[in-house]
Amino acid sequence: MAIGRLSERGIALIAYYEAGVSLELTDGTTPYPGGPRETPLKYRKVYMDNLASTPVLTVGYGTTSYDVDYLSEGDTYTHSKVVEMFLKTITRYEDAVRAAVLVDINQNQFDALVSFTYNVGIHGLTGSTLLQCLNRGQFHAASQEFHKWVYAGGKQYAGLIKRRAAESALFLTPIKKVRQSLTESRTIKAAVPAAVVSGLTAVAPVIEPAREVASFVENYTWVVFVALALAFCYILWLRVDDWRKGRR
């Protein structure tokens, strides 16, 4: 598995369900809207999380006294500081997911698993049926296992139901293929014949072996124009088709 770190989408998911923060991604979208852009005072102040299996001091996006040993109840930190603590804290959970998962997964699946592990704990992941299904290649079955983890202290919580649903949905979301080069563009491929016709028409008169082509073009100009018009229409159709399918 070559996945490196949690993506900004994964960070946004955790920030939303840990502290109600709606982070904006670099592409301008907000995948989990409805909350403030920065961490509210409530989550910048160290508090005792009594919903944890063992009550623990917590701050920001779920950073606990297990992660940093200087937390003291009531202490208040800035937004940038709680983000900094979170980014340091999350590495342990990223490492745990990479170590536990034995099959190839994409970035969305990795992000969902890190969010899940961050919430239920590393032992929760390693002992889960979710992980067993995943390592057997049963991806759909694994996605359904998220929904079973909605209890804390023996009680079901609406917040956990929503979080598990978001993690499962992200896990099942395919990665949008990004075109690696212009040569992969269907529009560019379609434009090549038109460019060849146009270029050949322009240079044919000065190329000795192509005088016959130049003569043909001169006598049948309408054929060249029809060919170029058809090529243009085909390119336009490809662009509309790409737009409809979400490709750019």
How would you explain this protein's 3D organization?
With 248 residues, the chain is mainly alpha-helical. It folds into two domains: 8-172, Lysozyme; 182-244. It contains eleven helices and five strands. It has helices spanning 8-19, 41-44, 79-100, 107-120, 122-126, 129-135, 139-145, 158-172, 186-203, 211-219, 221-244; strands at residues 47-49, 56-59, 63-64, 151-152, 155-156. A three-stranded antiparallel β-sheet has the order 1-2-3. The protein has a two-stranded antiparallel ribbon with strand order 4-5. The chain is elongated, with a radius of gyration of 28 Å. The relative contact order is 0.09.
SSE topology:
Elements: H1 8-19, H2 41-44, E1 47-49, E2 56-59, E3 63-64, H3 79-100, H4 107-120, H5 122-126, H6 129-135, H7 139-145, E4 151-152, E5 155-156, H8 158-172, H9 186-203, H10 211-219, H11 221-244
Antiparallel strand pairs: 1-2, 2-3, 4-5
Please give a handful of descriptors for the protein shown:
248 residues; mainly alpha; Lysozyme; 2 domains; three-stranded antiparallel sheet; two-stranded antiparallel sheet; 5 strands; elongated
